[in-house]
Amino acid sequence: MTSYSTRLVRVNPQNVAALLADTPSVRDTILRAAAAGCKLPGSDPRALAHSWLFTGPPGAGRSTAALALAAALMCTDQPGQGCGACESCRGILQQRQHTDLVFISPQELSIGVAGVREMIHQAASLPTVAPYRVVIFDNADRLTDEAANALLKTVEEPSSSTVLVLCAPTDAPEDFSQTLRSRCRHLYIPAPSVERIVEILQAEGHSPQDARLAAVTSLRHVGRARRLVSDPMAQRRRAAAINLAESVFHGSGGYAAATGLLAAITKEAKEAYQEADAKEIAAVELAYGAGAKGKGAAKAQREAKSAVKRVEELQKKRATRRLRDLLDLALVDLAGIYRDALMVKVGANVEMTHPDFAGLAQELAAKVSEEGLVAAQDAIRTCRNHIANNVGPALAFDGLVGRLRQACGAR
Ligand SMILES: [Zn+2]
């Protein structure tokens, strides 16, 4: 199953320029940097920074852009351009694999000093075959201040054969450690157009109709569009979230629907990674020689136990983050239907967020006042803030249903 943290960029062999064609500013910056890195004639040496910060809304393709920079720097056929077809380009763009590529994607909610040690170590190593070692660090917005400080020296004076790319899914770079930001070259990666997502999904073998519906309803998030088009569970959850707008009119039914949705999301967050988590634990046990007999076995078992405990704690943190991400997505879906209803109400001629739920949008537009539809969107924003600030999901959802009922004049 595809998921946010393990999603791979699967593309037909496409060169770097074509891969980034949808965002010319990003394409040009990356190609100029790679041309400088490979000392192509006429290139401007100042175009290559050794420490980058890529920001942009979730799903915009920050990691694709970072991998494109790596491919262009390490391409063996067209150094500085990234042919997309040589072994080096294919490994990097399709599998995130190359001897001199390090892709770190921590899953914790908050990344401490221990979480950046690997990056510091990797950044200090010399490349083996390529002219550069490219170290990509995803989710850098979750670095604690201590971790950001630990990274400062690396970011400030990276080795001349290292290129660091910190990626942060945020529209507000001010969220990001000011000290780190000031030492990196900043590149903003905008969300892809709906047309571009349709193209990507079609290239992956989906029908034009399915690709379009998923692209429109994904809120221009490529990973999400991919899930919607291929994962029935994601589709069902989306429908359940949107239908909550209808359920709140039915007294206690609204609360029951919210509880059901919450349970389904919690189950999904847990199950989607159960197998991977179990494998991770088994690998740790194996590494510590679990089940060994004889001299030193007791000590080895104690060590194995504590290592497993550490991994379990990490997995718990990851699970919390996944649950929060999924809850947030459901709330964004729900907000979309009130937005659509408002557009219907004021007669705006715009593309619907949920074209497959046009009937519900019309029904809401007929039943609820303009102020009510705005208040409903405010209620959802409040709930998203509650969840982001650690309010228990059950409590946050109960409050949401109460506010939605009030906003929609339900009795
Ligand atoms: Zn190549």
Tell me what the structure shows.
The chain has 411 residues and is an alpha/beta fold. The chain folds into three domains: 16-191, P-loop containing nucleotide triphosphate hydrolases (Rossmann fold), CATH 3.40.50.300; 198-230, no CATH class; 254-407, no CATH class. It contains 17 helices and five strands. It has helices spanning 16-19, 24-37, 62-74, 87-95, 114-124, 145-156, 178-181, 194-203, 208-217, 222-230, 232-247, 252-271, 274-287, 297-346, 358-367, 370-388, 393-407; strands at residues 51-55, 101-104, 133-137, 162-168, 185-188. Strand 2 (101-104), helix 5 and strand 3 form a beta-alpha-beta unit. The radius of gyration is 24 Å and the shape is globular. The protein starts with 15 loop residues before the first helix and ends with a helix. Zinc ion binds at residues 75-78, 82-83, 86, 88-89. InterPro entries: AAA+_ATPase, DNA_Rep/Repair_Clamp_Loader, P-loop_NTPase. It is an enzyme of class 2 (transferase). Its EC number is 2.7.7.7. Residues 48-193 form the AAA+ ATPase domain.
Uncertain segments are 1-11
Number of strands: 5
CATH architecture of the largest domain: 3-Layer(aba) Sandwich
Q: What sequence of helices (H) and strands (E) makes up the elements?
A: HHEHHEHEHEHEHHHHHHHHHH
Give the topology:
Blueprint: H1 16-19, H2 24-37, E1 51-55, H3 62-74, H4 87-95, E2 101-104, H5 114-124, E3 133-137, H6 145-156, E4 162-168, H7 178-181, E5 185-188, H8 194-203, H9 208-217, H10 222-230, H11 232-247, H12 252-271, H13 274-287, H14 297-346, H15 358-367, H16 370-388, H17 393-407
Parallel strand pairs: 1-4, 1-5, 2-3, 3-4
Helix pairs in contact: 2-3, 3-4, 5-6, 8-9, 9-10, 10-11, 11-12, 11-14, 12-14, 12-17, 13-14, 14-15, 14-16, 16-17
This protein binds zinc ion (ZN).
Pfam families: DNA_pol3_delta2
GO molecular function: DNA-directed DNA polymerase activity
Enzyme class: transferase
